[in-house]
Amino acid sequence: MPTDAPNEHLMDFAQLKRAIAAAGVTLWTWNVDSDKLTMDDAAFDLWGVPRSESVTFEDLSSHIHPADRDRVRAAFAATRGIVGPYEIDFRIVLHDEIRWISARGKGDDDGIRDGVVSGIFIDVTGRKQAEEGHELLAGEMSHRVKNLLAIASGLTAITSRSTSSTVEMAKELTQRLGALGRAHDLIRPIPGHEGKAALLGDLLTVLLAPYDDLGAFSGRIRVSVPRMGVGEASATTLAMVVHELATNSLKYGALSSPTGTLDVACALPDAEIVIVWTERGGPAVSAPVGAGGFGSKLVARSMTAQLGGSIDRQWLPEGVVVTIKIDKDRLAT
Question: For the residues of 240-290, what is the DSSP string, one character each?
């Protein structure tokens, strides 16, 4: 019988190169004895180093993020002892940009020819950013669920103090939970909307209404702010900040006590808008130990990144005072 012809469907070398380039794969070899690395042009571009016939591992190490450098060195040094495929993800610093690189290869002496190990580099920055975003979202969702359970318990306690029958309590608690739902809707963006989301005073009133025994402006929660509009993006962030502060107050601060009061005031804006949140009449408070919980970190990050401002807390014997500063131009966005 005649010998079978070569498989015409197999990739030729040019097609293979195109496939590798399309996949974002870059190629390297490493001489474990001389510490010399040989890379293709795409790998040099990925690392941001000038093209050379060979570079040393130390040349590349200067681009590895300091927090990952020792771990990567140890991983490459251990490749001869690894049986089978291996993969290590690490960060590199290219100018002011941080990229995530995945180095992949096959360990064990069986994979070494003339002291040379081969492998690939892949830019996995997009995947890592997506993973970090998912972790942040999962943490935020877990935090919000825990807060909502604590709020429901606190609102039940508040309602029990202001009602005299189970029927009245059930009706008022239902109204409070409904108000909480409306306030919670403000903590997520509403796509497709343009212009101002609300007036600042109206926004604060809706957010704080579930916690007030008598209704905003007339009960133990007092809001006094000038008339100014809040944009969609800023309304979402500000709602999240106020929601976090109110939750903490209900759990630990003035709103947890029947004699506690909350004043939210803002003067006419200048270059920046300053909102002062003042709690009085609640239990004694003290500054938390450590860097604070997830909610505090999320609030601080949102204030800086999205509102161009800051949040500062003073733990006074009579109650906490929170100063919120917002860039005036950012509030309208």
Answer: HHHHHHHHHHHHHSGGGSTT-EEEEEEPPPSSEEEEEEEEESSS---PPSS
| Cα 29 to Cα 187: distance, rounded to the nearest angstrom | 51
In terms of DSSP H, where are the helices of the chain? 13-22, 41-47, 57-61, 66-77, 125-162, 166-185, 200-208, 232-252, 294-307, 328-331
Q: Please report the domains of the chain, with CATH numbers, ordered by start residue.
A: 13-123 (3.30.450.20), 128-331 (3.30.565.10)
Per-residue pLDDT of 16-26, as tens digits, reads 667 666 666 78
**Residue whose C-alpha is closest to residue 183's, from 247, 251, 227, 262:** 247
CA distance 115 to 35: 10
CA 318, CA 257: separation in Å to the nearest integer? 13
Mapping DSSP to helix (H, G, I), strand (E, B) and coil, where does residue 291 land?
coil
Give the number of other Cβ atoms within 10 Å of residue 135's Cβ.
10
Task: With a cut of 50, list the residues of the chain below it in pLDDT.
Answer: 1-2, 189-195, 214-218
126: nearest Cα among 145, 102, 150: 102
The structure tokens 């960060």 sit at 91
3-class DSSP string for 88-113: EEEEEEECCEEEEEEEEEEECHHHCE
203 near 239, Cβ under 8 Å? yes
Contact (CB, 8 A) for 62 and 34? no
Beta bridge partners of 326: 273
Longest CA–CA separation in the chain, Å: 100
Q: Are 239 and 188 in contact (CB under 8 A)?
A: no
